[in-house]
Design goal:
With 796 residues, the chain is of the alpha/beta class. The protein is 40% helix and 12% strand. It is globular, with a radius of gyration of 31 Å. α7 crosses α8, α8 runs parallel beside α15 and α21 packs across α23. It has 28 helices and 22 strands. β20, α28 and β21 form a beta-alpha-beta unit. The protein folds into three domains: 151 residues, no CATH class; 334 residues, 3-Layer(aba) Sandwich (Rossmann fold), CATH 3.40.50.970; 264 residues, Rossmann fold (3-Layer(aba) Sandwich), CATH 3.40.50.12470. 46% of the residues are buried.
């Protein structure tokens, strides 16, 4: 049956009047109500054993009560999560959810009355008491479902069926093997943290204690993703420091020995280049084998301490893989973002990334957001960290459902995890899991939390860890005996000790993906000689002529706007004189790379036209308003030119493009600021990723930043890209900064990004009024083979 949200707010007497109207003439009410009353009448018929519909009669008081129960059911669906038992260490705050009988005109005297309204839950002719018990079981247990803000009826109905038609056993009907798997993952998570705590006392690790169910959740996600109709082949994860070491070992597949070496400060050969970074910032890639035997690539991207900054990087990396490897099949790659509750609510980058979900240039087919909600941010209590009821309220922006779940109930966590993956695969949209847990220690292991939250830690210090809680539940149900749990714990600890004693762990052999092989073929630059002279980046004259002819010829049947036609004629005259302007030099560089089979991606605000109406990479037909890409149709075997006007964001969009640039060295990736002045809105991405990523994490990037720059009387916000700020960030050959004054030299600079045997970020102080200045024109012959980028052009 269709999910009718209108019923929830409707008064029983109003519903009754509509029902009478429907009985007299079904067409007299809206289609939604027609479907609702048809279902209600069917249930009434089944219960009474007589015909209903237009000939049926029922006392008005009975109908009012029936519809009151329907209203009650919708009330629990909408607000039952406010009564759910998801917090393992404290009682819920009274949110006054209006779920008392009196709120619906019902009383205790109605509890044992049978109502056909129970058909909504698949239990027709049930007593009100039974209906309420079922509603509390489904919506007020250790999972709270928040989904009525989802507008799409199909999605709401899908969720309702999954929730209300699930196995009603307290253990969700999980097999014994599945429970043992959950126990194994929880045991590994708890045991890992306890081992580090005893062997490396006082060292920072930002442990997962209190939130160890996270490991069971991620394990369940990967296994369920591998079982879907189109199995997921790759999982890309972004997360902060909390629990990262645990995830690296118990999910991503980094060996325990590698982790222990980081604690022991033993040099690991493949991590010896550059400055390096702390162990809880590092990334890792592996192949893991799902329970059904399928191999899944799992990647945890590196990140800095700037919370949530990695979010757009994950999305950009994922989009690149979807474009390059998975032919835009969203079902084959799953992005997972792991948040902290305080950061999710407090960091604006989260909102920017969420807004990307359905945008053409940034869609990744939906992201599963997992919140490790330990109810505190460093020393800040949740009451001081947000104004919203939940830390996940940002989910409402894109109508993403939220599953609030107790971290002390691993089975509920796994159910929520599998449901989240299924929802994402079914609808290719975002979904959130709010895993409510706690933090056993302070912000790090040497921090004292009792200075600021003494009452909270008085509860936590007496609270059993999730493994103990789950062990006791399994033993009480007779699923396992006490000895099995003890043996599992002892075996894992002995195994860790063996690793620490230099007995190597053998991970699953890793098969490199094609883009990864291309990265491995590049050289790491540590010598100034690599930068002293640019390679030949010229192209044959025949290819130049083909490109320029293409750029000044409209497709057959295309009618340009009069202004575009006029500009095009001017371009033809310029080419005839043997010269090119900035637009032609730029687009010719992209076209030449496309003809070599490379891809080009550009995004930013207004980039299709260009802030200064100079690029016109895409133009619109004056008659049918269809848009064409100027660089399509160069060749049947050409690379793809992807250009997108971005949302009005610098931070998230630049982070996205940086992530995209990490996926393959064979695509030129560019971000253009509307004005260079606005790049400071993305300073976290510039400083922490673009300028320092290779040194910290050994990850090269060839990202290009185009920053319109020039003091031309437009005031303090439209004049400077802050050249000095970028020059200050240059060190140890980490980035190229360029101020180009010739269209032909700009052509070579862009091509050089792909011709060099290595990749470095490029920051260009691009012109504004100079885009059309005669002194910035270039000679066509300067594009020919044998020419290269000129690092310095003498005034003479």
């Amino acid at each position: 049956m269709t999910d009718h949200s209108a019923v929830f707010n409707a008064h029983p007497q109003y519903i009754e009047s509509l029902y009478r109207s429907w009985q007299a003439d079904p067409a007299s009410v809206e289609s939604d109500w027609q479907a609702f009353f048809k279902g209600f009448d069917f249930a009434l018929t089944s219960a009474n054993g007589e015909a209903a519909g237009a000939t049926a009669t029922a006392p008005a008081s009975n109908l009012q009560k029936e519809f009151a129960v329907v209203n009650l059911i919708y009330g629990y669906r909408d607000r039952g999560h406010t009564l759910s038992t998801t917090n393992p260490i404290k009682k819920r705050k009274d949110r006054k959810p209006r779920l008392d009988l009196a709120d619906y005109g019902l009383t205790d005297a109605d509890l044992d009355t049978r109502f056909v309204a129970g058909y909504q839950l698949g239990m027709p002719d049930a007593t009100l008491r039974e209906i309420i018990e079922r509603l509390k079981f489904l919506y007020c247990g250790n999972i709270g479902f928040e989904s009525t803000h989802v507008f799409d009826k199909e999605k709401r109905e899908w969720l309702r069926k999954k929730i209300e038609q699930r196995n009603l056993a307290p253990d969700y009907g999980f097999s014994l093997e599945k429970k043992k798997r959950i126990l194994e993952k929880i045991n590994g998570a708890v045991g890992f943290e306890q081992f580090l705590a005893t062997k490396f006392v006082g060292q920072k690790r930002f442990g997962l204690e209190g939130g160890e169910s996270t490991i069971a959740v991620l394990d369940a996600m990967i296994n369920r993703a591998a079982e879907t109709e189109t199995p997921v082949e790759e999982v890309v994860i972004g997360m902060a420091h909390r629990g990262r070491l645990n995830v690296l070992c118990n999910i991503v597949g980094k060996t325990y020995e590698q982790i222990f070496s980081a604690f022991e400060n033993t040099m690991i050969p493949d991590q010896s280049y550059g400055s390096g970074d702390v162990k809880y910032h590092q990334g890792y890639s592996s192949q893991t084998q799902a329970l059904n035997g399928k191999k899944v690539y799992v990647k945890l991207l590196p990140n800095p301490s700037h919370l949530e900054a990695v979010d757009p990087v994950v999305e950009g990396f994922s989009r690149a893989k979807l474009d390059i490897l998975y032919t835009d099949d969203f079902d084959r790659l799953l992005p997972i973002l792991i948040h902290g509750d305080a950061a999710l609510a407090g960091q604006g980058i989260v909102y920017e990334v969420i807004q990307m979900m359905s945008l053409e240039g940034y869609n990744t087919g939906g992201t599963v957001h997992l919140v490790i909600n330990n109810q505190i941010g460093f020393t800040t209590s949740w009451e001081d960290a947000r104004s919203s009821t939940y830390c996940t309220s940002v989910a409402e922006v894109v109508q993403a459902p939220v599953f609030h779940v107790s971290g002390d109930d691993p089975e509920a966590c796994v159910f929520a995890a599998e449901l989240a993956v299924e929802y994402r695969q079914a609808f290719n949209t975002d979904v959130f899991i709010d895993l409510v847990c706690y933090r056993k220690h302070g912000h790090n292991e040497s921090d004292e939390p009792r200075f600021t939250q003494p009452e909270m830690w008085k509860i936590i210090e007496k609270h059993a860890d999730p493994r103990t809680v789950y062990n006791q539940k399994l033993i009480a149900r007779g699923d396992v005996d006490e000895q099995l749990a003890k043996d599992m714990e002892a075996k894992f600890r002995a195994d860790l000790q063996a690793r620490l004693d230099n007995v190597r762990q053998k991970p699953l052999p890793y098969t490199y993906q094609e883009p990864e092989l291309h990265w491995k073929a590049l050289k790491k630059t540590t010598d100034d000689k690599d930068f002293q002279e640019s390679p030949d980046t010229g192209i044959p004259r025949k290819v130049i002529d083909k490109i320029l002819n293409h750029l000044t010829t409209f497709p057959e049947g295309f009618t340009p706007l009069p202004q575009i036609a006029k500009l095009n004629e001017a371009k033809k005259q310029l080419i005839a004189s043997g010269k090119i302007d900035w637009q032609l030099g730029e687009l010719a560089a992209y076209a030449s790379l496309l003809l070599e089979g490379r891809d080009v991606r550009m995004s930013g605000q207004d980039v299709k036209r260009g802030t200064f109406s100079h690029r016109h990479a895409c133009i619109i037909d004056a008659n049918n308003y269809q848009e064409i890409n100027r660089l399509d149709g160069l060749s049947e075997k050409q690379g793809k030119f992807r250009i997108f006007n971005s949302l009005l964001s610098e931070y998230a969009v630049l982070g996205f493009e940086y992530g995209y640039s990490l996926s393959t060295p064979d695509a030129l990736v560019l971000w253009e600021a509307q004005f260079g002045d606005f790049a400071n809105g993305a300073s976290t991405i510039i400083d922490q990723f673009i300028f320092a990523g290779e040194s910290k994490w050994q990850r090269m990037s060839g990202l290009v930043m185009l920053l319109p720059h020039g003091y031309e009387g437009q005031g303090p916000e439209h004049s400077s890209a802050r050249l000095e700020r970028f020059l200050q960030g240059c060190a140890e050959n980490n980035v190229t900064i360029a101020n180009v004054t010739s269209a032909s030299n700009f052509f070579h600079l862009l091509r050089r990004q792909q011709v060099r045997p290595f990749r470095k970020p490029l920051v260009v102080m691009s012109p504004k009024s100079g885009l059309r200045a005669p002194f910035n024109l270039g000679e066509i012959k300067e594009l020919e083979t044998g020419n290269r980028f000129r690092e310095l052009i003498d005034d003479a």
